[in-house]
């Protein structure tokens, strides 16, 4: 086996299993990682949270094909992934807004490992494999779990990160929309124990920023996109060797505005008369909404969590 599977015995997890209607989680650690070009001395990857479905797709993941003309977007969940995907797809496809508004983002930008953690009606690895080239691939995988071919090919990649408190709030509402039945406070206590899909969060971010010789990866933050989107767009255009006129870029900024993203049915996953709908998939799009949605105690808990998990002060700057 290329992965080690570890049962979660944490009392809070066991207590809430079933009550919150979460899946049957387990921790998965990569056992083959010497090919990952990381600068951290004596690095050994941590175990990451998945569902038992991961075991059924181990071979799919290990043998996933990667092509030189691929474009990948990588993130920890709820870090602004959808926004970045749409920006990247439009920039790389000559601002074809008509196609972007006609075809769902999921079809244009396959989620590689969705089959590894959620019950879906098709094999997402197979779907990605059969997507016409040049392919656009989304993944939340940590560096230790990327297909080995990724490191051989090194396709153009955007990595996006976001403030941990914003991620925590957005992840709760996202989970509540689809399956989660417990309170935000219960979710946050599970989150800081790394018992949500793709956790641990800090390790994911740090490891991507500690890669060496990976000029194929452009790092962005959600906050800089919110602060001044045109500067980010220029950076991404340069990264992909694209150039557009000012009027064309103005149309792109409009297409990427929060209102446009929220109202775009190819992005927001809204279904008419959806009986399980609680919170919109694209909710508020704020950079610091956590200030109004978290209690002082919850903010303190999340801040202390970051201090504990990130003792290196240089690394801690990644989470400001």
Automatic annotation (TrEMBL):
Q: Does the keyword Magnesium apply?
A: no
Q: Which residues form the Sulfotransferase domain?
A: 68-310
Q: Which InterPro entries match?
A: P-loop_NTPase, Sulfotransferase_dom
**A Pfam entry, by short name:** Sulfotransfer_1
What are the record keywords, sorted? Answer: Transferase
The GO molecular function terms of this record are: sulfotransferase activity
Q: Does the keyword Transferase apply?
A: yes
Name the family. Belongs to the sulfotransferase 1 family.
- Under which name does UniProt file this protein? Sulfotransferase domain-containing protein
Task: Give the source species.
Answer: Anopheles arabiensis
Print the organism lineage.
Eukaryota, Metazoa, Ecdysozoa, Arthropoda, Hexapoda
């Amino acid at each position: 086996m290329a992965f080690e599977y570890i049962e979660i015995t944490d009392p809070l997890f066991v207590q809430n299993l079933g009550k919150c209607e979460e899946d049957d989680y387990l921790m998965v650690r990569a056992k083959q990682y010497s090919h990952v070009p990381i600068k951290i001395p004596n690095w050994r990857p941590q175990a990451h949270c998945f569902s038992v479905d991961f075991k059924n797709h181990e071979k799919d993941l290990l043998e996933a094909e990667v092509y030189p003309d691929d474009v990948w977007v990588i993130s920890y969940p709820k870090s602004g992934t959808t926004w970045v995907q749409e920006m990247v797809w439009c920039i790389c496809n000559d601002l074809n807004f008509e196609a972007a508004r006609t075809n769902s983002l999921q079809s244009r930008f396959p989620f590689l490992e969705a089959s590894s953690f959620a019950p879906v009606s098709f094999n997402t690895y197979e779907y990605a494999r059969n997507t016409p080239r040049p392919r656009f691939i989304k993944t939340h995988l940590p560096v230790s779990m990327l297909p080995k071919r990724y490191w051989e090919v090194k396709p153009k990649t955007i990595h996006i990160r976001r403030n941990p408190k914003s991620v925590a709030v957005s992840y709760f509402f996202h989970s509540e929309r689809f399956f989660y039945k417990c309170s935000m406070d219960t979710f946050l206590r599970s989150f800081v124990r790394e018992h949500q899909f793709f956790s641990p969060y800090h390790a994911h971010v740090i490891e991507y920023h500690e890669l060496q010789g990976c000029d194929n990866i452009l790092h962005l933050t959600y906050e800089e996109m919110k602060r001044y989107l045109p500067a980010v767009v220029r950076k991404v255009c340069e990264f992909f060797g694209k150039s557009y006129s000012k009027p064309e870029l103005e149309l792109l900024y409009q297409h990427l505005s929060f209102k446009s993203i929220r109202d775009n049915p190819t992005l927001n996953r809204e279904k008419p008369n959806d009986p399980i709908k609680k919170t919109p998939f694209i909710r508020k799009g704020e950079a610091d909404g956590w200030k109004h949605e978290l209690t002082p105690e919850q903010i303190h808990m999340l801040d202390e969590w970051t201090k504990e998990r990130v003792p290196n002060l240089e690394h801690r700057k990644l989470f400001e």
